[in-house]
Every structure is written in structure tokens, then in C-alpha cells.
Amino acid sequence: MQSLGFFLGIFVVFLFPFAVLPALAETGQGSGHMGVGLHWAGILCILIFVFSYIAVLSEEYTHLKKSKPVLLGAGLIWVLISLIAPEYGVSHHAIREAIYHGLDEYASLMLFLLSAMTYIAAIDDRNVFKVLRAKLVGSGMSYRQLFWVTGFIAFFLSSIADNLTTALVIGAVVMAVGRDQKKFISAGCVNVVCAANAGGAFCPFGDITTLMVWQAEKVQFFEFFDLFIPSLVNFIVPAFFMSLFIKGGERPLPDIEDVSLKYGAVTIVFLGLITIAMAVSFEQFLGLPPFIGMMAGLSLLMIASWFIVHFGDRRDRDFDIFTQVAAAEWDTLLFFFGVIFSVGGLAYLGYLEFVSTQMYGAFGSSFANIGVGFLSAIVDNIPVMFAVLTMNPDMDHFQWLLVTLTAGVGGSMLSIGSAAGVALMGTAKGQYTFFSHLKWSPIILLGYVAAIGSHFWINSSLIGVFK
To answer: Range of 57's domain?
Structure first.
């Protein structure tokens, strides 16, 4: 059933380079890039990126982890750049500097995410998410009430955890509550995906794209909360219409599940909040990169794990914090490496400046940024947002908030448009599919439009403000 979404994604990704090839001939060499135009190596680099991304889209069918093709693609792109550099008077030293610039961006994001992912893994190990699931399953609420509760929890949880983890945790609740109620599970999973993506858009901790915007210093930490109401609107509008199709009086049967928090759970959650506070305060008041605060917080978690293993009547000798480090999403972290260096290579060849001119020069910032959301529904929002940041169009504060919003919530329009949707399709096979999501796409689009409209209404005072 999901095959239509898969082929749609492949069609768009494969068609794009052929649509722009004639215009690429006009690109010229400029500052910071080679401007290779239609050089054979440049075209080959584009094709390498396209085919590596097609392999990413094929992950569900080939079971080839998404990091593997993009890592190979990134390496091949920079090999080709080095081979043709002498033709453009570019030294290998200059290429090394460009690569180390990309490494600097990647390292700061990777260390931030590694700390966050380790905390999430440790919290999961201490049964925090399982207890939440058991409480909701046995709450005695009606299906409609549970629909709204799971949606709101996903919305707020994803602002401090990532949207992928949120979707998996709350999606498991929806499936446990629904049992044989396929309609409830289908609508509930769509609601969780929309809520998780929307909640991740108004806080740097909620999505990798918002984290990238924050660390690029395009938007300061507390300024992201200007997107709270547009993000809430994006979640509420489709949720309202979907809830009308869920029977309000019916209640699921109670599920007796004996789950309790493991030793140290509350401490780890508290330290997680302290770590977030350190990352924000280090950046706001000391001018330090946020990952310094996150790594300092990771050290606190590691010290706490030592106490959990060695002290207390309930000490847990099996708790190993490095097991939680290993449980981080390394496939995602390495995929992110491949994306940064692949897109960085295309930027060095001059292609992103061309795309920036075509998108932002021809259509204007508002239409281009709204289009980013539609592109994110088909292609993962990570490479889309990194491309925007690399192009670095001349935009005011209002527009940077707009593209943060659209890239974050645009992926909700299709199940393949976000990591949250793809993950839930894998865990809720046959109950949440591409087509079960697609039938709600018109009202999700309505939520997307309403969110953009509310941003223009509420944050119009930020138009023309440059940071």
C-alpha cells in the first residue's frame, strides 16, 4: 500500500535534476564555490546524490540502512570535486578547508544529538515510557478522549524529545488502546504524527531541523516560541476534523499491566531537564555552543549511572550507561553526516547558489519557504533544511521562522514525509499505512495553510527585522 508514496518520492527526486539541467548551463563561478555548471563531474555528482537518496527512500523495501548510501555518496562527490579542482584553479588546501568547515557543523550537531539520544535511551530503559503507556491504557477514558490526550502528549513531548521517539512511544499507546479498533488506530496514528511534527517545530529540541536553525544562529532559543501558536494550530485543525469520526461514547477495555519505574528513573528525568537548561543558558548567557551544555549534562548522567549501579537498596548492577550510548540512533547520526557532506559538496560546486537564485530570487521568500514544506512532504526535511541553511538566502527574522515552521510540519502531509510517519508505518503494519494517512491529507493541508496564516497574522511585526 505504501508503494505509491515510495514511487512518488522516487519520481520527484529523479525528475528534478533533468528539469533544471538547461538552466544549470548559466551558472558561473562565484565566491565560495566553483560554479561548474554542466561539467560532466558536476552532473555526475548530482546523479550520485539523487541515486543515494533513492536508496534512502527504498529502505523499507531493501532493508538497507539509510546512512549507508549517503555516506558513500558523500565520499564520491568530494572525490570528484578534488579531481576537477585544478581545472578551476582551486587548490586541494581550499577543498580541505571546505571539508573541515562541514565537519565543524556536523560535529556540533552530532555531539548535541548524541547526548539527547542517550538521555532518551536511558529514560526508556528506566520504564518511564512504559509506565506512561500503562497509565493511559488503564485510564478508563473514551476513545475520543484518548485521541485528544495522546495528541496533546505527543505535541508537548516532542518539544523536548525528538518527534521520532515521541511518535513511537505514543503510537504504541494508540495501538495498545485501540487493539482491534482499526479505524481508531489509523486516525490516532495520523494524529500522533501530525502532533509530533507540530510540537517539534516550536522548540530547538523537537526536531533536527529546528536544532540546525538554532545552532546556525538564525533564530535564538526563546524566539522559537513565536511559533507555538502556529504549531498548535497545525495540530488542532486536522485533529478536530478527525475526532468527529471517532465514537465519543465507546471506551476500550481496561488492560491490567504491572509496570513500575526502575531505580533512578526520576533522577534521570530531572537531570535531563537540567541538561536542557544548561544547553540553553550556556548559549544565552555565556556564548558557548549548545553542545557544550549537552555534553556536560551527559557527564551528569554518567555519574548518576554509577550511583544507580553501586548505591542504594534497589541498586541495578545491570544498568550500563554505555549500553544507552550504543542505543543512540547511530544510523540517523551517520545519515546526517552523509547529508551534510553531500549537500555541502553540491554547494561547493555552485549548484545551491543556483537553486537559491531560482527559488528565492524568482518567487520571493514567502512562496519559496512555503514550497519547502511541500518538498519536505516527499523528501526528508533534514536535507531540505540543510540546503536552505547552506544557500543562506537573505531573509528577515519572520522568514526564518516561516521556513522553520514549514520544514517542520510540511512532512505531515504524507506518511513518508517525516521520520515519525515512516517509523509508525513500520510498527503499525496494516493499521497505519500510506493510504490511511493519505485520506486525511486534505485536512492536514488545511492545517498547514492555517498554521502559515496564523504565523502571518501573529508574527507580522517581525517582517523586516534582521538579526
So the answer is: 3-462
CA 370 centroid distance within chain: 17
pLDDT recorded at residue 256 = 55
What is the number of structural domains in the chain?
A: 1
For residue 3, is pLDDT > 60?
no
Question: What is the sign, positive or negative, of the torsion defined by CA atoms of 274, 276, 278, 284?
Answer: negative
What's the first-to-final CA gap in the chain, in angstroms? 46
At residue 31 the predicted structure's pLDDT band, cuts being 50, 70 and 90, is very low
Q: Specify if 467 maps to a domain.
A: no
Cell 522548540, residue?
203
Taking alpha carbons only, the member of 370, 361, 372 closest to residue 394 is: 361
Residue 45 lies in a domain: yes
| 324 lies in some domain | yes
pTM listed for this prediction: 0.80
Of residues 432 and 271, the one with the higher pLDDT is 271
